[in-house]
Amino acid sequence: MTKLLILGRSGRMGQALIEAATADSGSEVAKTHDHGENLINAFDGVDAAIDFTVHNFTESVLDAALETNTPLVIGTTGHTDEEKAKIIEASKKLPIVFAANYSIGVNTLFYLTQKAAQILGNDRFDIEVTEMHHKHKIDSPSGTARRLLEILNEETNTSYEDDVAHGRVGNIGPRPPKEIGMHTLRGGDVVGDHTVMFAADGERVELTHKASSRLTFASGAVRASIWLQGRAPGLYDMQDVLGLK
Ligand SMILES: NC(=O)C1=CN([C@@H]2O[C@H](COP(=O)(O)OP(=O)(O)OC[C@H]3O[C@@H](n4cnc5c(N)ncnc54)[C@H](OP(=O)(O)O)[C@@H]3O)[C@@H](O)[C@H]2O)C=CC1
Ligand SMILES: O=C(O)C1=N[C@H](C(=O)O)C[C@H](O)C1
């Protein structure tokens, strides 16, 4: 039985994680933590910690995990490059799963996006990405959309800095051929929708994933925390957990 620390107890994902970890026969919720509580005490005696909180809390979480030698599952999104570098540094000493999305469906979307980009390319096909989330989400584009863009950039020899256009407004002129459009929608209680579109003259391919329950992400993260037990230090993602690599 994997004894878990769930961080962000009162959050949308914190609540879903407590439900998923309680339902999974391989895990139990040993500790929970929320804003203002002692973090080192929370890490004491657990087999893994699951962090779906806010990007600027991650450094404290990494420090506590290193001090107590606790494997980590990080689902938080919106990290700066510096914060990502700290996760990579910590993974030299600890096993860490860090993924923008823990659902099996989205990890399949990552795979299909890579294959579609390899087959269709960006000569004849124009690539656009959309994401929609609930009105409370604080980071944009979503971590999942950022990962989709990374895959598309890798496969089409483009870069996030030079080729990704965030929304379009005004007299924008004709679409630059290699541009990748990125469009964020926010509203209501949408759990998480992502679409990658390949549009050419005469045809269009759309790959879409729609999450309708946060338990989808939570059960994937609990699975990752169990998978981490006995792993060597390193930076892993959900594709590793699912055996898709
Ligand atoms: N990888 C994936 O599969 C998924 C990732 N996410 C990501 O998970 C994160 C959380 O999302 P969600 O649950 O909707 O967010 P919520 O705002 O609902 O929850 C955030 C939680 O973190 C706590 N928290 C915030 N700041 C701190 C801090 N400085 N110290 C300690 N605790 C803190 C909050 O406590 P308080 O309310 O008291 O501030 C709250 O309990 C986001 O980054 C989101 O993008 C979400 C879904 C899936
Ligand atoms: O904040 C959310 O809710 C979600 N965040 C993740 C992201 O930023 O990709 C994953 C999921 O889509 C829900």
Describe the structure.
This protein has 245 residues and is an alpha/beta fold. It folds into 2 domains: 2-102 and 214-241, Rossmann fold; 104-211, Dihydrodipicolinate Reductase, domain 2. 37% of the residues lie in helices and 26% in strands. The protein has 9 helices and 11 strands. It has helices spanning 12-23, 39-43, 58-68, 81-90, 104-120, 143-156, 160-163, 215-227, 238-242; strands at residues 2-7, 27-33, 48-51, 72-74, 95-98, 126-133, 164-166, 180-186, 192-200, 203-211, 234-236. The strands form 2 sheets. It has a 6-stranded parallel beta sheet, sandwiched between helices. Helix 1 packs across helix 8, helix 3 (58-68) packs parallel to helix 4 and helix 5 runs parallel beside helix 6 (143-156). It starts with a strand and ends with a helix. The model has no long low-confidence stretch (mean pLDDT 97). NADPH dihydro-nicotinamide-adenine-dinucleotide phosphate binds next to helix 1.
Question: Any chance you could write out the topology, listing elements then pairs?
Answer:
Layout lengths: L1 E6 L4 H12 L3 E7 L5 H5 L4 E4 L6 H11 L3 E3 L6 H10 L4 E4 L5 H17 L5 E8 L9 H14 L3 H4 E3 L13 E7 L5 E9 L2 E9 L3 H13 L6 E3 L1 H5 L3
Parallel strand pairs: 1-2, 1-3, 3-4, 4-5, 5-11, 6-8, 7-8
Antiparallel strand pairs: 6-9, 9-10
Helix pairs in contact: 1-8, 3-4, 5-6
The protein binds NADPH dihydro-nicotinamide-adenine-dinucleotide phosphate and ligand LZUJQKHR.
The ligand O=C(O)C1=N[C@H](C(=O)O)C[C@H](O)C1 binds next to helix 6.
